[in-house]
Specification:
By secondary structure, the chain is an all-alpha fold. Helices cover 68% and strands 2% of the residues.
């Protein structure tokens, strides 16, 4: 039987720059985000399947119509503000990554702080929304909101809402913690000593993923 000996120094890629010539940590971040996308996808598919297999469903315009300090009668206004805050935080994260590419420590620090503030503001809004819904009688296993046609709704609505938005909120909280760690490392010149800000770029990938997932959650729960 013929045998082939492979030298450890053999280069198998002959098409110019390798498409996989990516830093190891960034590849691992992409793998993590893909696995997390499958988890969110499973949640949303289960939600969509249950919703469209159910005859009636609460109208989001009636459920989410309250605004802090203004009371009821403002359909989807508060969640629109939450979405705006998260999108702006994504913009500041882009600016932080861009500053990192330019080895601009002050720019990284400034935009990371704004991103952290945006994340905390979003979490505060979500905490208010959850508290408000709880005082209206909504929670896992409890649904005080009738279907849009006036019939009694199941608890599927609140069960999916608190589970999926809670899971997303946990990701936002994780992103805030990661960004705080990145901020501390930046202030301590960790990346200046390494000669690059790749960690900021990886944190940015995670933050953009969290923002992108919210777009799907927002569309499924609040718009459809």
């Amino acid at each position: 039987m013929a045998t082939t000996t492979v030298s450890t120094g053999t280069k198998w890629w002959g098409g110019g720059r390798s498409p996989f010539n990516v830093e190891y940590g960034k590849v691992m971040m992409w793998y993590f985000l893909m696995s997390d996308a499958f988890t969110f996808g499973a949640f949303l598919i289960a939600y969509g399947t249950t919703r469209f297999a159910t005859i009636g469903w609460p109208d989001p315009n009636h459920v989410f119509n309250s605004f802090p300090g203004l009371g009821a009668g403002f359909p989807l206004l508060f969640v629109s503000l939450m979405t705006f805050i998260l999108i702006i935080s994504s913009v500041t994260m882009v600016l932080a990554v861009h500053a990192g590419h330019n080895m601009d420590k002050k720019g990284v620090v400034k935009n990371l702080i704004w991103t952290i503030i945006g994340g905390l503001a979003f979490l505060s809004c979500q905490a208010w929304e959850w508290t408000h819904l709880f005082h209206e009688g909504a929670w896992w296993g409890r649904n005080p909101f009738p279907n849009a046609d006036g019939t009694v709704a199941t608890t599927n609505f609140t069960n999916f809402f608190f589970t999926i938005t809670g899971f997303h909120g946990f990701h936002v909280l994780s992103g805030v913690v990661i960004n705080i760690i990145m901020l501390i490392m930046t202030l301590n010149d960790k990346f200046e000593k390494r000669g690059h800000y790749l960690m900021i770029e990886k944190a940015g990938l995670y933050w953009h993923f969290v923002d992108l997932v919210w777009v799907f959650v927002f569309t499924c729960f609040y718009l459809i």
